[in-house]
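pinging the channel bc i need a second pair of eyes. not urgent but kinda urgent?? the chain im working w is below, pasted from the shared doc
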Amino acid sequence: MELKELRECNAERLREIEKQIRRELFDARLKNYTNQLDDTASIRLARRNLARVKTLLQQKQLTAR
């Protein structure tokens, strides 16, 4: 997802996306460990996407106060 699309999501949807990205990251790391992962850049991409979602969640929490 693009940042523009993520900003339009509510906090609950962002938490669902966070869980999904965490699962993808876990699977990618496991496949990398067992030498089944072809695209190792997917780990970096997942980490960055996770950071984006977590940042947006934090921003939404701070503006809700």
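so The chain has one domain: 7-64. and The chain has a mean pLDDT of 95. — does that match what u expected or am i reading it wrong
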